[in-house]
Amino acid sequence: MGIVVQKYGGSSLSDAASVKRVARRIVQAKKAGHDVVVVVSAMGDTTDDLIDLAEQVSPRPPAREMDMLLTAGERISMAVVSMAINDLGFSARSFTGSQAGVITDAVHGKAKIIDVTPGRIVSAIDEGHIVIVAGFQGVSGDTKEITTLGRGGSDTTAVALAAALRADVCEIYTDVDGVFSADPRIVPAARKLDRVSYEEMLEMAASGAKILHLRCVEYARRYDIPIHVRSSFSTLEGTWVIDPADTKEEDMEHAIIAGVAHDRSEAKITVVGVPDKVGEAARIFETLAGVEVNIDMVVQNISAAATGLTDISFTLPRADGQTAMGALARLQEEIGYEKLLFDDQVGKVSLIGAGMRSHPGITAKFFSALASAGVNIGMISTSEIRISVIVDENQVEAAVQAAHTAFDLDATEVEAVVYGGTGR
Ligand code: ASP
Ligand code: MG
């Protein structure tokens, strides 16, 4: 039998008892005859606690030191999980991201994996060990500095290792039974999806569904690694994230809409009174790219003929708000816009489904469901298989519930069990 990569999230590793429980589960896979490589996240809320600690110590901690601090969380997990496995009579070896050969670019706090050279892992497997790897971290090939992959990045570590090791499957163990049609904390009638395509999962992750890290899904699609998202608290079959072309037609009976995702992590910036000339938008977004800010939605109004001025609004991660505002403020003289507006009381609600391509009327139905729920739409963006709207932050829940019901996604029996985690 081949290699299985398993990843355990922080909520599955909240204390000593759960570390031992996870160790038993890992050993089961080994006993079943697999070579097992395990990626672990930091225990419980450790990462958040470390961030809080840094904030108390320093108002603007250097990004390099922040990465040194945060990678400690995963190192604790890898060592204790390894100890617990050894107590069960199996030999385990833990490795940091750097030791495991996770090579990244040099961007602290949101590094991208550029290569995986898992020589030490392969040797450890050959020697019969269970391998435990600290997730969410790597080492820059250029600067040799330790980096982190961004919040939730352990998923990406797991899939990257699965690809490099040509594993049969990457199992992502979490505190819910799989991927749901909406966040069960908001929609109790959300249903578990048995299968979801890479492209739908990509859109869901990009739209704020926190179940999988976006780059992990990109990686899995590129290398065709099947992901099995499942609970570490039950033995139920979870959700398979796969390429529909790899399964038999009858297995992939597909709903038009896979689910409704929401995101409260964005903010909106409006550049008011931009001269409507060639090159101004390019200049604004080049500036934002220059300070590593990722833009999501963009809307440019038609300029008023009388003034020749237009407004450009866009959304971005809330955490990058001050960086972006600072960079744009320095452009004011050069571009001659009137002012900047910043709004962080917004939320994004997205409807996702591959069936949208071939079914007309989805947009109309979505918008009328929002209207009936009294939700006002601020911005709209679409892809082939997604419609997203920006709404007032305190209308997010109403919008998600309305869309979920309108598209008949509500399960008749409550399926979602949230086993652990604090939802932090
Ligand atoms: N511990 C990191 C975080 O909380 C990485 C992860 O859990 O995947 O974001
Ligand atoms: Mg996670």
Q: What's the layout of helices and strands?
A:
Elements: E1 3-8, H1 16-31, E2 35-40, H2 46-57, H3 63-87, E3 92-95, E4 102-104, E5 113-116, H4 119-126, E6 130-134, E7 137-140, E8 146-148, H5 154-164, E9 169-174, E10 195-197, H6 198-206, H7 214-223, E11 227-231, E12 239-242, E13 259-263, E14 266-275, H8 280-290, E15 298-300, E16 309-317, H9 321-329, H10 332-335, E17 339-343, E18 346-352, H11 362-372, E19 379-383, E20 386-392, H12 396-406
Parallel strand pairs: 1-2, 1-9, 2-6, 3-6, 4-7, 9-11, 10-12
Antiparallel strand pairs: 4-5, 7-8, 11-12, 13-18, 14-16, 14-17, 15-16, 18-20, 19-20
Give keywords.
lysine biosynthesis, binds magnesium ion, four-stranded mixed beta sheet, binds aspartic acid, Alpha-Beta Plaits, alpha/beta, Carbamate kinase, 424 residues
Helix count from the secondary structure assignment: 12
**Global Rg:** 23 Å
Uncertain stretches of 5 or more adjacent residues: none
CATH topology (level 3) name of the domain at 3-174: Carbamate kinase
Topology, number of strands: 20
What is the mean predicted local confidence, pLDDT?
A: 94
Strand order of the largest sheet: 3-6-2-1-9-11-12-10
The CATH fourth-level homologous superfamily of the domain at 3-174: Acetylglutamate kinase-like
Roughly how much helix do the residues carry, as a percent range?
25-40%
**Distinct ligands, ions and cofactors found in the model:** aspartic acid, magnesium ion
Distance between the termini: 38 Å
Description of the structure:
It contains twelve helices and 20 strands. Among the domains are: 3-174, Acetylglutamate kinase-like (Carbamate kinase, 3-Layer(aba) Sandwich), CATH 3.40.1160.10; 266-343, ACT domain (Alpha-Beta Plaits, 2-Layer Sandwich). The two termini are 38 Å apart. The protein is globular. It is α/β, with parallel strands linked by helices. The model has no long low-confidence stretch (mean pLDDT 94). Residues 269-354 form the ACT domain. This is Aspartokinase. Belongs to the aspartokinase family. InterPro entries: AceGlu_kinase-like_sf (IPR036393), ACT-like_dom_sf (IPR045865), ACT_Aspartokinase (IPR054352), ACT_dom (IPR002912), AKii-LysC-BS (IPR041740), Asp/Glu/Uridylate_kinase (IPR001048), Asp_kin_monofn (IPR005260), Asp_kinase (IPR001341). Catalyzes the phosphorylation of the beta-carboxyl group of aspartic acid with ATP to yield 4-phospho-L-aspartate, which is involved in the branched biosynthetic pathway leading to the biosynthesis of amino acids lysine, threonine, isoleucine and methionine.
